[in-house]
Amino acid sequence: MKLSNIYAKWESILFLLFILVVVFNSFLSPYFLDYFNIMNTTFNFMERALVALSMTFIILCADIDISVAGIIALSSLFMGMAAAHGAGTATLVVIGLGVGVVAGLLNGVIITKFDIPSIAVTIGSMSLFRGIAYAVLGDKAYTKYPKSFEYFGQGYIPGTVIPFELVLFIVLAVVFGFVLHRTSFGRKLYAIGNNSTASKYSGIRVNRIRMFLFSLNGFMSGLAAILLTSRIGSTRPNIANGWELEIITTVVLGGIAITGGKGKMIGVVIGIFLIGFLKFGMGLVNIPGKVMNIVIGFLLIIAIMLPEQIENLRKKAGS
Amino acid sequence: MNELILELRGVSKSFPGIKALDRVDFKIRSGEVHALIGENGAGKSTLVKILTGIYQPDEGEIVLNGKRVEFKNPIVSQEAGIAAIHQEATMFPMLSVVENIYMGHHLKNRFGFVNWKQMRKNTKYLLSRLGLDINPNILVKDLSTAQRHMVEIVKALSLNANIIIMDEPTSAFSMRETEELYKIIRQLREEGKAIIFISHKFEDIYEIADYFTVLRDGRYVGEGVVSETPQDKIINMMVGRSLTQMFPKIDVEIGDVVMEVRNLSLNGLFEDISFELHRGEILGFFGLIGAGRSEVMESIFGIVKPERGSISLGGEEIVINSPDDAIKRGIGYVPEDRQTEGTILSMNIRENVTLPIIDKLSGRGILNRIKENEITNKYGKRMEIKASSWEQLVNNLSGGNQQKVVLAKWLATEPRILILDEPTKGIDVATKSRVHEFISELAAQGLGIILVSSEIPEILGMSDNIVVMHEGRITARFKREEASSEDLLKAAMGTSLERAI
Amino acid sequence: MKALLKRREFSLFIFILFTVFVISLRAPRFLEWSNLYDILNDTAILIMVAIGQFMVITSGNGGIDLSVASGIALTGMIVGMLNQYHPEIPIGVIILIAMFVGLILGSFNGILVAYAGIPPIITTLGTMSIYRGFVFVLSKGEWVSADEMSNSFRHLPHGTPFGVTNIILFAIIVVVLAYIFTTRTKTGREIYGIGGNRTAAQYVGINIRKISFMVYAISGVIVGLAGLLWVSRYASAQNDTAMGFELQTVAACVIGGVAIMGGSGTVPGVVLGAIFLGIINNALPVVNLSPFYQMAIQGFVIIFAIVANTVVGRKTQASLARKAKV
Questions:
Q1: CB–CB contact C126 A252 (8 Å)
Q2: pLDDT at C154 over 60
Q3: What is the DSSP letter of B396?
């Protein structure tokens, strides 16, 4: 493969950036290259990473779901309510996932049945879902969770320092990636993202698939809620505040076109770790969270600008 | 008399891998209707884009009113008095007719604010001058396709264009609207405007054009006076050979009923549609725009649900809720709009061709590239798709080849019934003829075929039986031998002949 | 087709009256002039910023400005700190500075969207984080509190030199200017052009880049003014000022009938949409619902409004299409 081809590929650029971040971080602080530290830092972004997987499908189909953080809050709320009434871990998991699916389904139904752009609906449902959490909890919190529940967000694979969250993510990432790139379902997603009308005329059940994707997104949000709630041990209405934007940033940074139809899962995975380690590195030198967001913001913008500028430079050099 | 208003001398234009125009000459005089003829890919639209300033020529010169000019961008071309009316009307659907005409050059009053009153007045005047009965305040999205085209013409006139380019203007028009357009063109000619008229329809060319120029493969082939040149000669110039038969119809034995439609109705669109389709039959559906034919077909195919009526396949009544259902039942649909509905331009040929059957080709849901290539090869070759490889993006194919991709796709679903909606619209003559051959072959293989078309020669040439629709109802049925152009038109226009020519 | 336009905004207006009526049944105090006046005061900023958002959305191509809340926080913090350390600067100058800072923030968005071609949702997602981050950097995490502000600063939104509070006055000025701009000027109408059909707009020679840039710049200027009004009204410049506000502005637009894809929408519609949200927000304590219900109700209302808007819009479109066929 020509150097220019590799150079031009988004995923390769991302990977390069990732290596750069790792190298830079290791110079920045001796604590970075510690195996234990690296493993532990993944706790910070695995929940978002999970939602990024299903969000990738959604954005590929030229939709968007801004309500995911709201779903996390809602899901956590119901788990908290159940836990306060003495529910066991297994029940909590079912509730967490269930609430997520129902919320996602609600999105999906309104979007497909009334044919309304997903951005408009999810702006509303985002407020609705988190709003319910605020309405119920106000400024209080649920903090009583069963001990075994802690495992999901805090536990490790027995005998190792590998977090359960990380393993769960890796397994699901492989599954999602396989589905996207190697199955007929994945092909249909690309078709829908490129031209949903022609896809419909070719027999693809576009709305059914879209509805499924929103439910899936809800499911993954519910899963994220379980892990997050388990990790921090409590539920407050502002849980996962602002996460929707970071998740979308991750997906777009990973090379998925916001207009749909283009991009690869591996890009998203690299993007997840890129941002995760970047934030880790910044944290090591005590850069406050808000400032980190500045960096992420710029990163997003540069990430979009870069390929186009490279393309322009190549054109100029060629002519 | 009429002076030379515009001349192209030795104009060439290349793109990566394609020489779109190769030292083309072109002349047009004021007060002349000049047909620009050529197959798809001959270079017509490139020439238009050069005239409208979207492209700049690589070599050659453009001479306007005796002076050399350059159209660096659309605005310069517009200011020089050239206006183009595109095949797909480019309008602002949420804005009024007035604003569509004036967008980009709103009239201002002495305070610098928009002068709505004057603009409305002018619009009313321009519309009435062309005999158009359209309310200037209506939002364009509420107009029919033909009405939108008319508004585009009005727009061109409001810009004081002297040279008006019309690209396939009648391809979405009914008979009556076409007549209206002819009237307008004749009037513009009286006023000394020069009209460049791109069309594949010989009816249009022979009816309205004075002069013609033929392009082939980006080269200038010849020109002449329309009234002095027989159709065959023009076809010869276009394809470099003469096509003896435009509609090669094979006589096929017609078999049993394969589909029966009874009283299909959808309020406001069509009412009480009943017909039978047999194996080996080509059933033509003729009608004017708005007759409701496409809507009926979309209903059968599961895009829109009918309110009443039934569809039976092989004697058994079925319900079709989605295109997926229809495909599973063996129905295929080649839609009217191949770029939006028929193909996914940004994906390649293989992905397009395998799309409806992708589940079948994927064992347990997993993609199988070998099977995909097999199928694409089989049907791609059968349809004679011209492409460098099956991985080529459909966007990079010519219109005719794109349509072949659509046909290949539907063939791959092994349908028992194939519905074709204006399958040869906007396609060059050679491909058109091949498509017709192909449709006949399919019928011979035992498929039931419904051919929706507004071209009388095509309907008469291809169909075994013809159904005519008007305003959502079936007004006539003909056997092929019984039908004549006049009968078809009469039925298509309902009973009120006053609205006709 | 003014009739149709009037119909949409009109039905929203009727709906608002109806809602107000229903609420007042529950709590008659709601209909008191002083209460309605409060609503106007509370909603003035939303009206202004929503108008900026409306222009951005209407310019099409996925136009949206998610950075408005962060912009408010940043400009608010800047003028707040300016006032804290230089209370001698006259309030008139502060207003200009606020608008200027807002212009810069908006222009940055505008350059990225119009000239670098970055999709608006990405751009403003990015600047949303960036601007909010800079609030922290500037203030080092600290607030500007009421006693650190000068009297004239804090008094700005409340003063009534013309009979109504300044804040309402500013809103009225923005509304009137925006209305004239979007209905009576060529450039204003061209926003609808590029939003309705970008290619067609290009063909008729409209400078798409200029107009795309401009709507973000205008939104920025409004945001600047809003930032000043916000921190002076609540007498506090914080790091989480206006958190989540951007969604309210989009909600106001959506409720007001602005098409999310661009190309249509009106200033009166947006104003009504904002007022409607303001009424809901204000009605909560009046009907004894804790303010914590605000978000949920807002979300529900948004969804309801969009669905209603869509369903009604489709019905009228279908019947008109049949009429136009003749």
A1: no
A2: yes
A3: G
